[in-house]
Write a structure and sequence with these properties.
about 200 residues, mainly alpha
């Protein structure tokens, strides 16, 4: 039961409390760039979640079975970047073949997953936090779901902003950043809730 409790704490903490976009401010580029339409935001969130899971499934064994055993821990960042770039290329080919509409909708933002610091951050933080393989996968799932949740919520907020009369000085990027800060403030309210649930 303790193992299940630990996994649930990791999952809920990753989604709500330590949300990579809203509390750690990683992955801001696609968060601001692809959140105008709900379908694109959802597609990007699902794609990032898939890449986070795949990246963790590949990088965790590489770190523990190859880099640490050979004393090459200092190569972690460059190796992880190469692995993530390869995974994104595979995902792009998959979407191009099986979901051309989503591939076209994501456009230039799909290759940006390669440089999405949230994906690299998850892979590195899972190792830094000392998670085992299962905990790392649960953490990656939680981080991906948190990214998806942030994208969907922000997409809804942006559609409401587009329908509103925004004062001229706040139009454009200014109101977008203000909206993002409000969502981030709302997520700060989850601090401590996970500990309270599983205490």
């Amino acid at each position: 039961m303790d193992a299940f409790k630990t996994l649930m704490v990791i999952l809920l903490s990753s989604v709500l409390v330590n949300n990579y976009v809203l509390s750690r401010f990683l992955g801001i580029c696609p968060f601001l760039g692809v959140s105008k339409k709900l379908d694109q935001a959802t597609g990007m969130g699902i794609s990032v979640t898939a890449v986070m899971l795949l990246a963790t499934a590949v990088t965790w064994p590489i770190q523990h079975l190859i880099l640490e055993k050979l004393g090459l821990g200092y190569m972690q960042t460059i190796i992880f970047i190469l692995v993530i770039a390869a995974l994104v290329q595979m995902l792009e080919l998959f979407l191009k073949k099986f979901s051309p509409a989503l591939h076209k909708g994501l456009g230039v933002y799909l290759p940006l997953i390669t440089t999405n610091c949230a994906v690299l951050g998850v892979a590195i933080n899972n190792i830094t936090d000392g998670y085992n393989f299962l905990e790392s996968m649960v953490s990656s799932l939680g981080c991906g779901l948190g990214f998806l949740l942030a994208m969907v919520l922000f997409s809804g907020l942006r559609s409401r902003i587009d329908e509103s009369r925004v004062p001229k000085p706040f139009r454009g990027l200014a109101i977008t950043l203000i909206g993002a800060s409000f969502i981030s403030l709302a997520f700060m309210g989850f601090a401590g809730i996970v500990d309270a649930i599983f205490a």
